[in-house]
């Protein structure tokens, strides 16, 4: 392979990673509207990055064996998870309790990370069929999504102070809308 082909593949992977990471950025902005500490933001970004390494890796490995039938299923599952998270955030904002019932820690963080990384599984399926360089692909996907998640969470965290009690409704609405976008092709 010559240098032009390598640079072309690198550019293509960076653009794909950016596109996949924008999911995490957008959802991170919504989730950042919940009051989060910098330490939580750091761990959320690491977790999202790890999922954006693991999911496309599984997709690449399976994609080398199977067809891309699972791509649509993964996208719909991710959309359903985001809709459920969004609805939960909206409903919990109307309760008198402090904080959402499902926050981005523990199991909630796993659900959050899974919901934004399922689309990278379907991309991994396609790349596995295509025969992309596995290590390069997953490292680029992981790092880009981690950085974009941090950016989204930090921006959401700043805006949260301005919006006060309405920030959780807005955050839930963002997650809900993004989930519906994944489920419904419009």
UniProtKB/TrEMBL annotation:
GO terms for molecular function: manganese ion transmembrane transporter activity. The keyword Manganese applies. It comes from the Bacteria. Its main location: membrane. It is a multi-pass membrane protein. One of its GO terms (cellular component) is plasma membrane. The keyword Transport applies. It is found in: Cell membrane. Pfam families: Mntp. The chain crosses the membrane at residues 12-34, 41-63, 69-94, 106-129, 135-156, 163-184. Keywords: Cell membrane, Ion transport, Manganese, Membrane, Transmembrane, Transmembrane helix, Transport. InterPro entries: Mntp/YtaF, Put_MntP. Probably functions as a manganese efflux pump. Belongs to the MntP (TC 9.B.29) family. This is Putative manganese efflux pump MntP. It comes from Metabacillus lacus. The gene is mntP.
